[in-house]
Amino acid sequence: MCPFLALPYGESVKKMAYHKVNADQRTQGQYLDSDDLQATALELEWDMEKELEEPGFDHFRLDGAVQQDLGNSQSPDLDLEPIQPSASPKGRFQRLQEDPEYISHYTRQSPKSHRCSFFQILKVFCAALILFIFGIVIGYYAGKKCPSPPASPEPNNPHIYHEILKEIKAENIQQIYRDVLQSPREDDVDAAMRILLQWTSHGLEDVRLVNYSVLLDLPGSSSNTITLKNSGECFYPDGQQCSKVTRTLHSQDLLYSYAAYSAKGTLEAELVDIQYGTIEDLIRIQTTTNVTKKIALLKLGQSPLLYKLSLLEDAGFGGVLLYVDPCDLPKTTDLAEKAFMVSLNSGGDPSTPGYASIDGSYRQNRLNLTTLLVQPISAVLAKKLTSIPENRIQKDKCVPLQLSSTDKKIINLSIQSVTTYKTISNVIGYLKGSVFPDRYVIIGSHHSSLNTYGGQEWASSTAIITAFIQALMLKVKRGWRTDRTIVFCSWGGTSFGNIGSYEWAEDLKRVLQRNVVAYVSLHNPVRGNSTLHPIASPSLQQLAAESQNINCVEKMKCPGSNVSSVQTQGDSDYFINHLGVPAMQFSYEDINTSENSSFVSEALFPMHATRTEELDPSFKLHENIAKFSGYATLQIANEPVLPFNALDIALEVQNSLRVFLGEEVDASQLLAVASRLRDTAELFQSDEMRPANDPRERAPIRVRMLNDVLQSLEKSFLVQQAPPGLYRNILYRLDERTSQFSVLLEALEHCKLHQSNETIQATLSEVLNSISSAQVYFKAGLDVFETTLAGKK
């Protein structure tokens, strides 16, 4: 209560009481004439009008009443008539008029309190309006000066993604593709520099060239040769007879028909047909033939090349002639007459295994990565070596090539190549995220300085990623930005064993282990035109399936391809097998004509300028790959909760173990741990992921904790060591035909070859530990959430 208002109220009460007492005294003691009574009434009325005109009186009335009540409670013995809180001074004056002894002969105008109250209210209203407008002005300018919270200017609306993707057009990709091929390519650095300038011209803000000096195994000055000892005929790898004319016409293709990092030298030995080099093939051959220092005739396919070569090396073979059976090639291709290139490098710079090739690094002397002399040859030459009789050739059916058991051939194999240190370059571009700049979504293509080997394939890859950058930066220039950082990469040295991606990742390993969220691969995006083949980690399979629907939103029916988690080629290798990062890849392929066609893509055939445009003349397939990959990248980079599915991982684990129920393996413990993993994943999915995806229940700190858990889901499934060519990440199967864990499948095969259970027991233990570690990781994540929630309560 304002203290200055108490005094007028007290004086008025005294005046009122004074006049009333005088009137009573006159009535009791002597006669009061009418003039005195009227004067008294007028004085009292004048005093009350003065009180009514006191500013703030109405407000004071309630406060004064409360104060008086408190005063009365402190003096309970006083026998005074209390002033009612609801009685106004005007009301008390009206009660005087109701007194039967009260007489008034005068009439006068009503008090001016109503008009004063109206003007007072008008003043208050105007003052409040002015203050309100003034507050809006202050808030506006304060908002302009204060930094806005780190969030995207626009909501995470799929409509935004479609606005970006609609800028990706087939004709733009085709133009970029042709520009890439028309540019002269002298070395890897030149190709990388042109890509850097192109990305920068589209507005990508932070683009860097990262160089590494690595050990490459390049072709020699002349082509490798295969000579039949019996007839003395000499052949080049493509099947043509040795001559200067042939070598001149096809010099580039002949030189690059080799196996990088193979042993060098000359070997003369008997040719032994081992078909696909499976465990069964080796057991069959070794029961009848001494294979020591012999030359194996090996088909590419069924299982990874490095795995098969390791088996041949252990068996004692000295050399390998490698070919692709025409029955395993798509009918739409004409590759039977062509030799090819393969790399025997499992990944990275061979001279710095496991660490980056930076200045000052120790260089190991690893000129050869195998003791075998390995030479790829064409199917035409393989037919000449096998000498297929005419009666075995069927027009309506493809007959696999096979060397007659009675036909003994002695081969002279001459291999030469040059190992030298070269500079390879990676182009790394960053689009910094607005909310989580320390979380990376990597999308990778690659470039090559080889004229024909992989030239078409890398040009497609480069055109697609450049078109996506161009479309994305148009939206960024208008103020929009993804929540997480997108890292655009064009890798060098991919043809020699994913060298560029390995070296960069080894160089930044600690940062990437903490920051990388996912990897989207654009490796060899259009290798056919028959079917779409999406590959994704189990946690990303649902997103991969959803990404296929972006082109058919308005259509009644939207067919989609099945998404699988199988091994694939390309620069995603390090991120999958060493960092445990969820990965995804879309590509168009031809329909496989044989169940043995898996891993045929390890062969790098020469492809010339017209091949890609024959496969996709309108470049519509390129546009689809760009949109599928772009949509997935935007979803991962911009959704508040990472679009990963934890339960799909648990289901994949259970499905991979069920097939061992009929094997001679006790998988009961594995199945029990897998069941617990599924229960924990279901609880994690329902209790944490579903509420976090609801904006009404979403708490930023819990979303960040949840994303940290989702980001590291697959790291538990990395085994310490896997056989050559097999993934360390056990969530990926060998191919579409197999459903078991590849390391367990290989261990079972190993038992057949060596008659020992030691390998299978060790592998079972390692897989068990991986699944158990994943279950503990899920459980720990749930416990952290429960503890945090309990602490807040």
UniProtKB/TrEMBL annotation:
> Listed GO cellular component terms?
nucleoplasm
Q: Which CDD domains match?
A: PA_hNAALADL2_like
Q: Which residues form the Peptidase M28 domain?
A: 426-590
Keywords of the record, alphabetical order, are: Membrane, Transmembrane, Transmembrane helix
Its GO biological process annotations read: response to bacterium
| Lineage: superkingdom | Eukaryota
Q: Could you say which protein family the record assigns here?
A: Belongs to the peptidase M28 family. M28B subfamily.
Record protein name field: N-acetylated alpha-linked acidic dipeptidase like 2
| Gene name linked to the record | NAALADL2
